[in-house]
């Protein structure tokens, strides 16, 4: 018996890793390494993509259920180095609070053109001039109609009128509204004026059914933003639509 124990100890000294604890289905644990804990998979960062340092992007959020997706767009733009300012319609604040976008953008969120606490006397003019691009998402049927009619009664539509930067719309609405002739006519009118449109996509809608009208995913919107940003010196603010 003693000889058998002695032979086992001698074998352990000659065999690398012998006597160490093994993770189930894995190699012997290395000294000092905790085994059994889940290994974190390499994260595919949402910020992957071209850097946007020096770019000023204004995001106009409208009242739709897809407003929550815009938070990811804002977060990713910031992580890529862009300066982001968020505008919200009154209806948008019913879906996502301004505090969320303030935290993500690191700038005050404008919900009222005449807010006495605003850092700008005329935010729609000031931000419209500074913007390299204006994103309006979700672009509701109501906002699309306002823009097509040239109305400027809220901070989002007013900024769209004031800016000379490219304007990107990300429509989001029910399938029946998107198919309505008036909505299609308004979109055609805006395209003719130089507005760009990304989406919508076919998929599950807020009503629970599937159809055309689902706002494009954040990654698709981000790709569209990058493709529309004009190549010019970073000190040059604003531009022609």
Give keywords.
241 residues, alpha/beta, Rossmann fold, two-stranded antiparallel ribbon
Q: Widest sheet: strand order?
A: 2-1-3-4-5
Structural class: alpha/beta
Largest beta-sheet characterization: 5 strands, parallel
Describe the global form.
globular
CATH superfamily: Flavin prenyltransferase-like
Count of DSSP helices?
Answer: 9
Task: Describe the fold and architecture.
With 241 residues, the chain is an alpha/beta fold. The protein has one domain: 3-Layer(aba) Sandwich (Rossmann fold), CATH 3.40.50. The protein has helices at 2-14, 67-79, 98-105, 123-130, 141-149, 155-162, 175-179, 181-192, 218-228, and strands at 56-61, 83-88, 133-139, 167-171, 196-197, 201-204, 210-214. The strands form two sheets. A five-stranded parallel β-sheet has the order 2-1-3-4-5, with helices on both faces. α2 packs across α9, α4 packs across α6 and α5 packs across α8. The longest helix has 13 residues, at 2-14. The radius of gyration is 26 Å and the shape is globular. The model is unreliable at 4-46 and 233-238 (pLDDT under 50).
């Amino acid at each position: 018996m003693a000889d058998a124990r002695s032979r086992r100890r001698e074998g352990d000294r000659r065999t690398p890793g012998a006597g160490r604890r093994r993770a189930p289905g894995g190699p012997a644990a290395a000294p000092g390494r905790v085994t059994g804990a889940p290994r974190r998979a390499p994260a595919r960062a949402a910020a992957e993509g071209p850097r946007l340092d020096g770019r000023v992007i204004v995001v106009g959020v409208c009242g739709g259920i897809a407003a929550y997706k815009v938070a990811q767009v804002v977060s990713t733009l910031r992580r890529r180095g862009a300066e982001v300012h968020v505008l919200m319609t009154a209806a948008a604040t019913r879906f996502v609070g301004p505090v969320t976008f303030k935290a993500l953008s690191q700038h005050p969120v404008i919900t009222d053109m005449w807010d006495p606490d605003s850092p700008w006397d005329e935010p729609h003019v000031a931000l419209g001039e500074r913007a390299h691009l204006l994103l309006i998402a979700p672009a509701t049927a109501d906002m699309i109609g306002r823009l097509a009619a040239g109305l400027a009664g809220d901070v989002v539509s007013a900024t769209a009128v004031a800016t000379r930067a490219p304007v990107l719309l990300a429509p989001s609405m029910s399938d029946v509204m998107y198919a309505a002739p008036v909505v299609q006519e308004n979109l055609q009118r805006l395209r003719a004026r130089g507005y760009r449109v990304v989406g919508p996509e076919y998929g599950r809608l807020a009503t629970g059914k599937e159809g055309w009208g689902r706002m494009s995913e954040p990654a698709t919107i981000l790709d569209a933003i990058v493709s529309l940003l004009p190549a010019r010196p970073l000190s040059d603010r604003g531009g022609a639509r």
